[in-house]
Fold this protein.
Amino acid sequence: MSDKSRNILDAAERVEFFLIWQTRNCEPNCLIRSNCLTANKNNIERLNQAGIVSASAEGAGKSGTRSKVAYAEDMENDIRMVAKTAKTIKTKFPDFQNTFILPRGDLSYDDITAHTESFIADAAAHNDKFSLYALNQQFFTELGAKLTGFRTSSQNQADGKRTKVGATAEQEAALKETLVTIKELDRALKNHYRNNPQKFAEWQTASRIRRRSESDAPEPEPNNNG
């Protein structure tokens, strides 16, 4: 949640405490305040829920990205090992049809997944030859599991991004509703407390929205003139 969003949420929570306190102390009620108390509470719940969903989605997306990268690195190392081994097999078995060839240079994710899939499929007919060089069926089974893990991680990454976009949109909508509610309350309560300077000031304090986080405020410079 951004500083701006957090500051608006903080103001909404202070407003809720103020309204509840006034109600408990038998302050005269007004229709707009009663309606806005419910609206403000709903806004707080929406903002908190959107923040939770957004944080969870961001975490899932980052986790998916880390896993995706790790799986890709493992698969690339494995298929390069298969390609080198296939060259060795070709020298020992001239009739061996070497389909385990990788392009020069860096491999994209699409390159890695495509060659991993084809190497696994083609290796089934040459299990005896690859087993001579310690690349047995178990190796290719594990390589297949890495491919599945990569695709699952990619999906988790995409799901996380999509969910975060939706949560951000919901948060923005809730922020707008919160500002509208506070503005309506501000007008009503300033009118209501027009002859009560103490309550008027208390309301202004409760409803004030900070423009920046206090931690961002610059440190006061020391006075070296005295």
Summary: Residues 76 and 107 are 8 Å apart (CA to CA).
